Amino acid sequence: MPVEKSLLDGRAVGMLAAALAAGIAGCGGGASPGAPAAAPAFATADLQAACRSMDDEEPSIRDRAERGLAISPVPTNTDGLHRKWKRLVGLGSYIVNAASDCAGCHSSAAGFLAGGNPFPLGPAGNVWSRNLTPDPTTGMQLTFAQFRESMRTGRDFDPDQTRMLVVMPWLTKRWASDLDLAAIYAYLRSIPPATHAVPEDVKDALPLPPSIPFPGHAYTDGDVVRPLKGSLESFSAERGLAISPLANPSGLRGDARDRFGVGSYIANSLLACNDCHTSPDRTPDPSKVNTAAFLTGGAVFAVPPPVQPALKQVRATSANLKGAVHGFFAEPDDSFARFRGIVETGAHADETPPTPLGFPMNIVAASLRNLLDYDLEAVYAYLKALPATTAGDEPRQAPARWCAVAADCASDETCAASGECIGRACSADVDCDTCQTCGAGGTCKAPEATSDCLAAAR
């Protein structure tokens, strides 16, 4: 072989090796001929492995990623990154801004996901939503490995904290796949930093461990222990079938099985439906989901005073979704069109006049309306197909409506000192608004200060 040809071949081999190395670093190959693939600065080996596992040409991943980049309320720093990284960031935005409602707790006057919202724990103190932005001094400082461990076990990596995370629904989020957790992390590291110092949590008085071990390869949270699948898949139907707290309906086949599985995955790992719509959401120990009353509602939520005038609510009770008689999905006019209309409007669009959804669902709906149609339909298909239950199957009170003066209420009502509308005619407590009671005169009255309902409000 001529020397020139030998040198040329050697040079080609070297260039090929460099290209392959750049492809590995950039997660999936060169961005364009002659240009090395780029990976973000936060791309640790385990995060790159998750990125490489993603089939970014799979239509549903592509569609979710494109929707995610389109709905991000802030720009993402993806300039110069390989296509796969951009898809991973877009997928993370889709989860954060559509399939979850991270902004509902973590956004504040300080900015998108800048944290600082207080969550009172009674005498035990307060916890505050964390600053999730990549600000180097006040934002999230976790590596991907630490972030994944925190989401899986509840470990609080703040050096001043000795108790696990509370309020944050990590007991549900822990079931998300490694790939989807990687996508969330990639998005959080790609948004603009917000310099906002959040107060330290005060929770040492709570009888909580530092963390709860992740069961690893099995789902152990419901009635059926199942092997976990789809760790390196996104929105995996198989993983969704594994993490449904109840026994899966028999006879699921083909597209119906896939829709049910994807809907379960969204509902039971990303949306955290159980955390609000089951009361109590965990068994007394609390090792498992309270499957006896799964999704029958009844949790009471206090609306933060600063937002009461805007939402026109003081407190609300989560809706009964799966009760055999009083459940939302048992109503005779139930349909996906009705479900979609409620999500899109944030109100009971099927009522005349439409009434707003109760807090915090009226906020969550703003994220859910960003879901692609087939994902929203999958959530509906899952919730509809679940067996109805008789435990906890009760009608739920409407939200207690905020007022400053009587004119804010209906003509037959007054504005109580507690800042809520009272006085409507009633025959039972359920005819009144959340935590109110039906008085001896047949009119709704404000709850007493010692009300058990008020004490249970989150």
Helix content: 25-40%
Order of helices and strands: HHHHHEEHHHEEHHHEHEHHHEEEEEH
The tally of strands reads: 11
Q: Give, in spatial order, the strands making up the sheet with the most strands.
A: 5-6-7
**Distance between the ends:** 79 Å
Structural classification: mainly alpha
Described by strand count, sense and barrel closure, the largest sheet is: 3 strands, antiparallel
| Whole-number mean pLDDT | 91
* Oligomer kind: single chain
Q: Tell me the Rg in angstroms.
A: 25 Å
SS summary, helix count:
16
Please mark out the parts with pLDDT under 50 across 5 or more consecutive residues, or reply none: 1-26, 28-35
Instruction: Please state the overall shape, judged from the principal axes of the Cα atoms.
Output: globular
Portion in beta strands: 5-15%
General description of the model:
The chain has helices at residues 3-26, 45-53, 59-71, 83-99, 102-106, 144-153, 170-173, 178-188, 237-242, 254-270, 273-277, 308-311, 336-345, 361-368, 373-385, 452-456, and strands at 118-120, 126-128, 218-219, 226-227, 300-302, 313-317, 400-401, 414-415, 421-422, 437-438, 444-445. The N and C termini lie far apart (79 Å). Among the domains are: 218-385, no CATH class; 400-456, no CATH class. Strands 5-6-7 form a three-stranded antiparallel β-sheet. A two-stranded antiparallel ribbon has the order 1-2. The protein contains 16 helices and eleven strands. 44% of the residues are buried.
